Amino acid sequence: MITVVGMGAGAPVDTRVAAGAELVVGGRRHLDAVRLPEGAERIVLGPLAPALDTVETYVAEGRPVVVLASGDPGFFGIVRVLAERFGAERLDVRPGVPSVAAAFARIGLPWDDAVVVSAHGRDPRTAVNLCRALPKVAVLTGPGAGPAELGAALRDHERLLVVASALGCAGERVERVTPAEAAARDWGTAVSVVLCLAGTRAPGPGPVRTVAGPPAGPAGWALEEAEFTHRDSMITKSEVRALALARLGPRPGELVWDVGAGSGSVAVECARLGAAVTAVEKTPDGVERVRANAVAHGVDVQVVHGAAPEVLAGLEDDPDAVFVGGGGRELPAVVTACARRARRTVVVALAALDRVPAVREALAGAGFGCDGVLLQSSRLAPLPGDVTRLAATNPVFLLWGVRSHGRTEGVDQ
Length: 413
Fold this sequence. Notes:
Blueprint (H helix, E strand, L loop, with lengths): L1 E6 L15 E4 L1 H5 L8 E4 L3 H13 L4 E6 L8 H8 L4 E4 L4 H8 L8 E4 L6 H9 L2 E5 L6 H7 L5 E7 L7 E5 L1 H5 L7 E8 L39 H11 L6 E5 L5 H8 L3 E6 L2 H13 L4 E5 L15 E4 L6 H11 L3 E6 L5 H10 L2 E8 L2 E6 L3 E6 L3 E8 L10
Parallel strand pairs: 1-4, 1-5, 2-3, 2-4, 6-7, 11-12, 11-14, 12-13, 14-15
Antiparallel strand pairs: 7-10, 8-9, 8-10, 15-19, 16-19, 17-18
Pathway: Cofactor biosynthesis; adenosylcobalamin biosynthesis
Protein name: Precorrin-6Y C5,15-methyltransferase
Organism: Streptomyces toyocaensis
């Protein structure tokens, strides 16, 4: 039997948790906090594979093993690895208080509406994009993905970072900092978790929840044009937007660019579906419209003022998906610049038949498989006398490229 004991973030440690064990495995601080049985072997966790091999030897001989871990070892912890290798029936799990729960408790907030993401030993971009897109995120940190790195990535976003270090220990600290302040410090190795909250101060508790996790996704998408402020009907029509969203596949943890955003309808819809979004728009009034539409729909969209493709070089993070709207002679160059950096897909909406070959060539030249469709729709329109006619909308070409060998490992589930 393997007894897995969670320690560190909540109640005082029972120093007798390892009583009767012949092998005790854990981090150095966990091992130092308990009373080890006389004659028991002690393994300080470093590389996991050798420790598991030793555990397997003891289990095969029927000798008792105790594994010490932080907080709840079944929550992004060692229980997953142990269950996969030895079987859940051989585990006696005794969870402690998760570091996420302890951190939220320290600042007096519930966490049933928080998204929890691990950046420990994982690509930190998923955590960064979740922090950009959602109002309440808890990040389990790791080397290269701590408060300083998160702060540097969130400098342009209005966020409050709550850095909880050494939870449950004598040196416990819970500090509220801006992203810039976080980026400027060396936080050491004692950080337990970082909470990322929308705004510059911790929000109130919010409404009573029924389902844990982030707010429920939208009940519908491809919203009517009337849902957005736009100029002279210069907006991606809902029928086109519906297919564009299907091809973009925006989801939490990913980054989408909306290049030539116009009203920002695509950007807003991607953000409503949980993605982090950067909208690029060259006109000052267009920038203000995108911002106004984002506010009206309660989503966070980073808006960059500038003309593509030149302005794209200043965007640090590569997107998972890109939507390119509008046209102009520079369109092939814009698509090429976007395709060079997109990790998964590029979707292009255009009205001019003459530019379709150049866009297809740009996508193919960047290693994308290219497909597309001409969308023509007719909407019901009332006529006098209580009758209805069909009113045709302008035809639009929608082209999309999917990278044959994706650069992304996907969102960690």
